Amino acid sequence: MATTLQHRDGRRQFADLFDWAEGLPSLFTTPAMLPGSLRGVRIEEFAADGKYVVRAELPGLDPANDIKVEIANGMLTISATRQQEEHDGARSEFHYGALTRRVLLPDGADEQAVVAKYTAGILEVTVPISAQPAETRTIPIERTD
Predict the structure, then answer these.
(1) Which side of the chain, N or C, has fewer Cβ within a 10 Å radius?
(2) Which residues contact 1 (CB under 8 A, 6 or more apart)?
(3) 35 falls in which pLDDT band (50, 70, 90)?
């Protein structure tokens, strides 16, 4: 059963306004995603069974050498590189170069328990999410005179 994702702030909704168009710059676009490169990574994302799942289309890549998945400060980063092969007199419509796609993780994401797998050209990253929202905590203020 899919659930609604809750994000830390409004950055996610604003970024999604631009990410719908493959290759258009947004707040999370890197120079490698601009036209002439591999273009943007197409993804699908959903939450089900207490997990947040991101799937990215990355066909024809070697996950051990060409793909990197990182998580830091509530942001999932998928990076990939496709090296151009030289062929005399060949015509190619393939896209070569580097790309990066960043995705803001939902509230409650367990950044220490992330799992990634690559099958048939699809990278799937699974992040457990806590059913418990983060608690508000009052921080005592130390007075220094």
Answers:
(1) C
(2) 48, 49
(3) very low
What b/e readout covers 33-59, taking b as 16+ CB neighbours within 10 angstroms? Answer: beeebbbbbebeeebeeebbbbbbebe
pLDDT the model gives residue 5? 60
CATH architecture of 2-85+94-128: Sandwich (2.60)
Instruction: Quick: pLDDT tens for 13-31.
Output: 544 544 444 444 444 444 4
Q: Helix H segments across 39-109?
A: 63-66
Q: What is the Cα–Cα distance from 81 to 60, expressed in whole angstroms?
A: 11
- Separation between Cα atoms, residue 145 and residue 84, nearest integer Å: 65
5/117 Cα distance (integer angstroms): 22
Q: How confident is the model at residue 90 (pLDDT cuts 50, 70, 90)?
A: confident
Mean pLDDT estimate for the chain:
77
Token pair in block for residue 90: 């060949």
